[in-house]
Amino acid sequence: MSTLDVIQHTSADYLGLMEDHLEGRRIRFRYHRPFTEQGRVPAPGECGDGLILLGGGPWGSAGGRDVPSLAEEVALARSFLSLGRPVIGIELGAQILCLAGGGSSRPRALSFEVGSAVRTRSDALNGFLPERVPRVSYMRDWPVPPPDAAVLAVDERERPAIFQLGANAIGFTGHPGFKPAIAEDLIMEFEEGPEDPVPTLEELRLRVRDIEDALVPIMTGLVQVTGLMQVKHRIPVTLENK
Q: Which domains does the chain have, with CATH numbers?
């Protein structure tokens, strides 16, 4: 049985709908909460077979309001990449994955978006990524993948929405398992929030079934690409300027 280490940045943002898919495949996961009094970022030697870096709500990585554990998380993700261990970055986590893999992040105001992403290549996620998928993002700043990253899908503005580094590291600018309750709790958890989130919340509630349906093939492809059911298959990512 594989074990994933999941880094949370807020109490509200978690794996959401992804939990059931992991449990159904007997992939264990354990949350780490560096933002709590006793919490910390685990050392590479304390981690299991894969790493998931979640979103951060109003926290970012481009200098305006960086998540306090940014440096430690970049170092952890870089260690996973160099060892060929799978990494999944979601929203802020995608920014951290880019920073660890030779890319960067750029400043952007906190935004709450509900839209779609369009597949750019038929073999994305081993061919399981649908041609069009919902994209829900509650995020400050924006990930900039390194030049050698493969862009698997783009959003309405032609920005990378899903990208792949090496053989088994995947970044999502939106949360593929997002639940309306995550946004509601983020709005309540922090004083800073997106301007007039009610229309976006209403649109999100209308898209829940679409999110659930798209997540089925996404998780199938994600598990295959990351090798989480075959944990001995590890291919290191070559990092520039390590």
A: 3-226 (3.40.50.880)
